[in-house]
């Protein structure tokens, strides 16, 4: 059971009405006292545009689900306030800790980020094939990596990422699990790291991420006022 409700500024969250059941995409912005604040929930329409929450009122029950630093957090909450200033957002009741379902989804130490990467595979004839033109590393540790990708990928693939302007790291990955059904259409992959092209550079990169995670963990998310200056953290 978590000691608090952990999340990153502008944390992606899945929102659903308890009765209607339709899933929407939103962002968990901050926590002010006993209130958590999310921006306007929306979902992709078949036409390609966005459809937004309709008829959201005080005391409506909502179901929230999101992933953060290797864990999935799920809980029910109720709407305390619907506000349009300085932008459309919902104020929700922070659940009691006993009401939060926490499930570990990755086994390796993690860091939350969205780093663009290239995923490629090897064709049977011996040449490299681009597997997904739009992929991101969202979690990474010494033994594993979490990836968001537009497309399905095979069990074994090569991940390439830039550590610096003149340094590019290649990581051989093996798929462990996959999760679909996200509101944005991405697949979420949990993968084992089998081999890296630059072990020392990779170790230094992980040290940098650990230092950055420690720094950002000390930034307060509770602004303690009603002026909603929290959006400066985004």
Q: Can you give a write-up of this model?
A:
The protein has one helix and 15 strands; from the N terminus they run E-E-E-E-E-E-E-E-E-E-E-E-E-E-E-H. It folds into two domains: 11-105, Roll (Pnp Oxidase, Chain A), CATH 2.30.110.10; 115-215, Thrombin, subunit H. The protein is mainly β. The protein is globular and about 60 Å long. The two termini are 27 Å apart. A six-stranded antiparallel β-barrel has the order 1-2-3-8-7-6. A six-stranded antiparallel β-barrel has the order 10-11-12-15-14-13. The protein has a two-stranded antiparallel ribbon with strand order 4-5.
Offer a concise description of the structure.
By secondary structure, the protein is mainly beta.
- State which percent range the strand residues make up: over 45%
Please state the overall shape, judged from the principal axes of the Cα atoms: globular
CATH class group of the largest domain: Mainly Beta
The unreliable regions are 107-111, 219-234
CATH topology of the largest domain: Thrombin, subunit H
CATH superfamily of the largest domain: predicted glycosyltransferase like domains
Give the SSE string.
Answer: EEEEEEEEEEEEEEEH
Helix content range: under 10%
Structural class: mainly beta
């Amino acid at each position: 059971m978590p000691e608090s409700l952990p999340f990153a500024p502008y944390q992606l969250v899945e929102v659903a009405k308890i009765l209607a059941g339709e899933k929407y995409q939103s962002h968990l912005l901050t926590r002010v006292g006993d209130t958590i604040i999310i921006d306007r929930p929306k979902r992709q329409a078949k036409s390609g545009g966005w459809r937004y929450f309709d008829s959201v009122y005080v005391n409506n029950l909502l179901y929230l689900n999101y992933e953060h630093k290797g864990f999935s957090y799920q809980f029910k909450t109720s709407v305390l306030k619907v506000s349009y200033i300085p932008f459309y957002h919902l104020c929700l009741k922070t659940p009691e800790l006993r009401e939060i379902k926490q499930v570990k989804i990755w086994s390796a130490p993690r860091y939350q980020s969205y780093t663009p990467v290239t995923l490629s595979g090897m064709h049977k004839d011996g040449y490299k094939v681009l597997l997904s033109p739009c992929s991101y590393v969202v979690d990474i540790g010494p033994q594993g990596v979490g990836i968001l990708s537009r497309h399905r990928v095979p069990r074994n693939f090569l991940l390439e990422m830039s550590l610096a302007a003149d340094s590019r790291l290649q990581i051989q990955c093996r798929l462990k699990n996959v999760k679909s059904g996200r509101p944005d259409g991405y697949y979420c992959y949990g993968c084992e790291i089998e081999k890296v092209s630059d072990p020392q550079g990779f170790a230094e990169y992980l040290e940098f991420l650990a230092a950055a995670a420690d720094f950002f963990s000390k930034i307060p998310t509770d602004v303690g006022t009603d002026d909603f200056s929290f959006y400066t953290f985004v």
